[in-house]
Design goal:
elongated, mainly alpha, two-stranded antiparallel sheet, RNA polymerase II complex binding, coiled coil, about 5% strand, Serine Threonine Protein Phosphatase 5, Tetratricopeptide repeat
Length: about 350
């Protein structure tokens, strides 16, 4: 994945389209760069407000995807979007959206409420911004409408505010095949599932941390290796049992064996952890290298593109200079007036007319 810049984010938002793949690709990129969540959400809102009415729903689908898929990575996006969603829903509502756009956004609100993405009071705030009413939208299930408890104001008053249900395993599973409407087209919005694909390149600081941690790995612990090397040969030789002459010697050997087993068990466990960490590092390095190769290729393509552009501009510069050299120098032209008197001014002509 490419590195994060605000300019790059603006371009990606500009290129965003209504397709499932476009939304998913940008969502994963944003989640990967979640440490920039503050500037991401701020830029998202600014570009949403600038976007044409027909594209605002796509921006909202992107926000929905990021909010839901980033939950397992951390709460940053959920909290950050929470502060701007009222403005976002108001902006969409004020852009004279089509009824199907409002229906699609109400469906998102219903899903958020059903899955506990946000508390019910927040969902009501968003609903008010979009619909002018606190009524919590219905969520369609298998072609029918499913009404949550507390949807009506009377039920909310009598029963009080209800805590949203946490997402269960079955709920998460359903999310993977959630069907949504995108600009009139029904699509399976697979980006609703909390899934992060393999091969996501690590941030440089994460890679550095893993490398530094491995400097203190089990295989580099010379002290423990020395203790293992200095274990008595008797603890690993069955023949030593034949040499035991009394119970005291047997108990001493048993104690030595128990100590050796503890040392080796602990060290083997550390080695197993180190082996897993090195496998993880190998994967991280592979993914990081792949990303750097992609970035290198992009840089090479960009360099070739701008070198070509520079070459064309230099050709124009050369032609301009040649053209300038071929133009006559007006200061060196002979005096063609022949010493004639200057032409009369407008005032002179006016006065002559009146005389």
């Amino acid at each position: 994945m490419s590195s994060f810049t605000e300019t790059g984010l603006v371009k990606k938002l500009f290129d965003l389209n209504q397709s499932q793949q476009s939304i998913q690709t940008l969502s994963l990129w944003l989640i990967h760069h979640r440490k920039h969540h503050s500037i991401i959400v701020k830029t998202w809102l600014k570009e949403l407000q600038r976007a044409p009415a027909a594209k605002k729903l796509t921006f909202m689908y992107l926000a929905n995807d990021v909010i839901q898929n980033s939950k397992k990575k951390g709460p940053e996006f959920g909290r950050e979007f929470e502060h701007v969603l009222v403005k976002a829903f108001k902006n969409v509502a004020q852009s004279s959206p089509e009824p199907k756009t409002i229906n699609s956004l109400n469906r998102i609100l219903g899903i958020w409420c059903d899955r506990g993405v946000y508390e019910e009071p927040k969902i009501k705030e968003y609903s008010t911004a979009l619909n002018g009413t606190e009524t919590i939208p219905r969520v369609e299930v298998n072609g029918s409408d499913k009404k949550r408890k507390g949807d009506s104001s009377s039920a909310a008053e009598s029963e009080g505010a209800k805590k949203p249900r946490p997402a269960t395993a079955s709920t998460e599973k359903k999310a993977k095949s959630e069907v949504v409407e995108v600009n009139g087209k029904v699509e399976t919005h697979i980006t609703l599932s909390p899934h992060q694909p393999d091969g996501d390149p690590p941030e440089p600081e994460d890679l550095i941390k893993v490398i530094l941690d491995l400097e203190n790995s089990a295989s580099s612990d010379a002290v423990v290796r020395e203790r293992i090397a200095s274990l008595k040969p008797e603890v690993s030789e069955l023949a030593a049992l034949d040499k035991l002459e009394d119970k005291e010697a047997a108990m001493k050997l048993a104690a030595d064996v128990n100590d050796a087993i503890k040392i080796l068990n602990d060290y083997n466990a550390r080695l197993a952890v180190e082996m897993d960490d090195r496998k993880k590092l190998t994967t991280m390095l592979r993914d990081f290298l792949r990303e750097q190769q992609e970035l290198q290729q992009q840089a090479e393509n960009r360099l070739a593109e701008y070198q070509n552009k520079l070459s064309k501009i230099k050709e124009v510069q050369k032609e301009v200079r040649n053209h300038m050299n071929n133009l006559p120098d007006l200061t060196s032209l002979p005096d063609v007036t022949g010493g004639l008197a200057p032409l009369p001014s407008a005032g002179d002509l006016f006065n002559a007319h009146h005389h």
